[in-house]
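Recall the central idea of this unit: under ordinary conditions, the amino acid sequence of a chain determines the structure it adopts. In this exercise we apply that idea directly, starting from the sequence alone.
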Amino acid sequence: MMREEQQRPRIALVLGAGSARGLAHIGVLQVLNENNIPFDFIVGSSMGAMVGGIYAAGANINMLDRMIEHMDTSLLFDIHVPRMGFIAGNRITSFLNLVTKKKSFGELDFPLLATATDLLTGKRVIMEEGSVADAIRASISIPGVFTPVKRDGMILVDGAVADRLPIEVARSRGASLVIAVDVTFSEGKQTNIKNALDVILASLDIMGKQQFDLVHPQSDILIQPRVNSYSPRDFEKSREIVDLGREATEAKLDEILAKIAEATFLIRSGDSNKINNC
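Accordingly, the structure predicted from this sequence is:
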């Protein structure tokens, strides 16, 4: 008898970049858990890698929600005299080691792939071995803000530079059904420029828009929490952002369940080659 996960499509959850807006991923995961929506692995870019990595390391997603809500995130940013970035990143690395329990990828509760960008080649880098905390640290390293991570001859920065929503990575790893979460490009997007960080983040958004337009049709379900009015710096508004992630996912539940049911039927009837067209 086939195991249950072999009788349904291989499902990937793709969590996109978005700095503070990416806290909406917490709400997405809460609703998926509460409704027993299965997925086989997570692919995360930037904040998507951070939330996905902490969850895959075994963190209680509701406890993570409460911790972020009451946390002074400014304490994580160790400002120093800039050489390759204004924030050294040592404090956030310590935080990531704590919340991921210093786990390696092989010790996670389920598979995770985190993406970063190699400044030397300009290419997307997929991380799935070694320290999870180190991989997340590379994936969230906003150029010019965080000091890049040097790894295996590469200089790694934010995954959003090369691939804000890594749906293609999920497909390349055998996902027959992709649930993608975009926290940047939903309708009515607003851009507020108040400081140098806003300039950098808005520039990354602009660079990522063309790639997003190309890849998002490759998802089977696209969830876009309405976090447009929030700045990528609005970590203190996590309660509202997480709730918007919940709201957007609840609105997609019927579609998600229908897609899974249809793909599962095709697999059990021997027509699995038709899944991507369902």
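The chain has a mean pLDDT of 89.
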